[in-house]
Every structure is written in structure tokens, then in C-alpha cells.
Design a protein that fits this description.
The protein is α+β, with helices and mostly antiparallel strands and about 290 residues long. The protein contains five helices and 15 strands. Strands 9, 10, 11, 12, 13, 14 and 15 form a seven-stranded mixed β-sheet that branches. The chain has a five-stranded mixed β-sheet with strand order 3-4-1-2-5. The chain has a three-stranded antiparallel β-sheet with strand order 6-7-8, with no helix packed on it. Bound molecules: zinc ion. The site of zinc ion (ZN) has 8 residues, from loops.
């Protein structure tokens, strides 16, 4: 049976009270299916499992605002060559009996990447579809493109594809220590890598230099690529880059960054939980994990 991913904004549908870490290794053909919501619906995702009216149609699932087939992927991220059905629910939709909505971010922090990546991919497509119902050029209702996962405007012909917003994570080192900063807006209190969105006309290396300069006031030399991770909140692709301190003293901007410092593995502040690329890069940079 193909996976079914039920999403509602940044939430995924999981069995009520489920331990997310356990779901990652749960039933199905592989851990990547751990967050499939297939059990909540019949095989076609057309009706809630059990108790569905005999004449139920796909539209009969209360609160479903969009349903589509996830394209087959051969990407390594989820290791999934299979597509699946995505049921996208409206903002206030109630879950089927015995199931509950859970922020995908919780899964990111509680299971291996391969456990949540396919659900994240489903969510990214659902997010994009929800925000591309109308043509960005002329404002008319968009139509499906057909075999490809895109939209085409029947009125003006504009074609659009799922949007991906690249953002860099800067692994900046100086004398063997790593630059970590505490974001002024983030209530988590975690210290993490300098991050920021790539702007039009920039290379990734330009972005690394600009973001570090803007946020903490130092000049760095961008060295090379370290890895990437799709991050569907709502559509980022995080790209890790190594960089070397070149000049200047840390001077947090006070707007985005409240505090910044150089850290070794022996005296770390609170850092992001496992699951994110930022944590993976921090661990690698400091020889942890
Ligand atoms: Zn148009």
C-alpha cells in the first residue's frame, strides 16, 4: 500500500499519543514510512478508516482542502522511490478518531532524518499548492500542469513550480573554535550557526560572507560546501558552508542576533536538538556525536 501523508499546515497526522521515536522504526516497508498516515484512511485515501458513509467520495473526508499524488522521488533524502497520496487539511480541521495533529518539528527533533523526510516532502508540496492556487502574474485561478508537479495559468500561460528558498548555514571557525550565536527572536534559547536566505544575484559564498558580516560584524572567507537539508517550514533548502574568520571582532547586530561567541566542545551553550542540519554541522565541526 502506498503511503498516505495527511498534513495540516505545519502539522502531520499521527496516531493519538504516539511516540514519534518509535514511529520512525514502525510498520511498513521501511523507516522512511514511519510518518505515513495510511492507517487513518482507506487504501485510496478516500474515506476515514471505519465508519465511513457508503457513498463517500474523496471530498467526504471532512476538512480536506486538497489531495494530490506525491511525485515519485529517487532522491537520497528519504530514500524513497515511491510517491504517495497527500491529503491536505484546512487550518482548523479535526483529526479522524484515534489520530491527532502533531507539529512536524517535533518529529524532526525526535527521529532520524530518514523517518521524517518523506512527510516533510509531502508537506512542502502541500504548502506550495496551498499558496499557488492563483496565478502570481495575472491573479487568475491556476490549473494543474499535468504530469509534472506544477501549475499553469489558463488565462495568461504562466507556469510555476514548487518554490524552494535556499538558505545558508555558516560553520565559521577561528583558532579551532566555532562561531555560535543566539537569535534575538527565537524563544528556544539555543545557540546555533549564523543562517540566512540567499538573495537574488548572490552566490552561496557571497551569502555566507554577507550574513556573517551583517549579523555579527566580522569578515570571513567562505571555504566550501558541507551538506544540505530540505526544511519545509515552509520551503527552505538549508545549505551548510564552511568559512574561516578573516578579520574583525564579534559585534552582534542586536536585532537578529542577541549574543555571539567562539566555542569549543568543552564549554558549549545550549545547541539545537538532533535532527536539524545545524546540529549535524555543529557536531561535525566540534568532533561531537
Ligand atoms: Zn495568469
Amino acid at each position: 500500500m502506498s503511503p498516505v501523508y495527511a498534513v495540516r499546515g505545519a502539522d502531520i497526522l499521527v496516531p493519538a499519543g504516539a511516540e514519534l521515536a518509535a514511529l520512525a522504526e514502525a510498520a511498513g516497508d521501511g523507516p522512511w514510512r514511519g510518518l505515513s498516515s495510511a492507517g487513518a484512511f482507506d487504501a485510496a485515501g478516500a474515506t476515514p478508516a471505519g465508519g465511513a458513509p457508503a457513498d463517500a467520495t474523496p471530498a467526504a473526508i471532512a476538512g480536506v482542502s486538497d489531495r494530490f499524488m506525491l511525485p515519485v522521488s529517487t532522491g537520497a533524502m528519504g530514500g524513497a522511490a515511491e510517491g504517495g497520496l497527500v491529503l491536505s487539511f484546512a487550518k482548523d480541521a479535526e483529526p479522524p478518531a484515534g489520530w491527532e495533529w502533531r507539529p512536524l518539528r517535533n518529529a524532526v527533533q525526535n527521529m532520524p532524518e530518514r523517518g521524517w523526510a518523506p512527510a516533510a516532502r509531502a508537506m512542502a508540496y502541500a504548502n506550495w499548492r496551498a499558496s499557488s492556487r492563483y496565478c502570481g502574474r495575472c491573479g487568475g485561478p491556476n490549473a494543474e500542469l499535468g504530469a509534472e508537479a506544477g501549475r499553469r495559468c489558463p488565462a495568461c500561460g504562466a507556469v510555476s513550480f514548487p518554490r524552494i528558498s535556499p538558505a545558508i548555514l555558516a560553520v565559521v571557525k577561528k583558532d579551532g573554535k566555532l562561531l555560535l550565536a543566539r537569535n534575538a527572536q527565537n524563544a528556544s534559547g539555543f545557540w546555533s550557526l549564523i543562517a540566512g536566505f540567499v538573495e537574488p544575484g548572490e552566490t552561496f559564498e557571497d551569502c555566507v560572507r554577507r550574513e556573517v558580516k551583517e549579523e555579527v560584524g566580522i569578515e570571513v572567507e567562505a571555504l566550501g560546501y558541507l551538506g544540505s537539508q530540505p526544511w519545509p517550514f515552509p520551503d527552505q533548502l538549508m545549505l551548510g558552508f564552511e568559512a574561516r574568520w578573516a578579520s574583525g571582532e564579534l559585534a552582534p547586530d542586536g536585532v537578529e542576533i542577541a549574543e555571539a561567541g567562539w566555542f569549543g566542545p568543552e564549554a558549549l551553550p545550549p545547541i539545537p536538538r538532533v535532527g536539524s542540519l545545524s546540529r549535524r554541522l555543529i557536531d561535525a565541526a566540534l568532533g561531537l556525536g
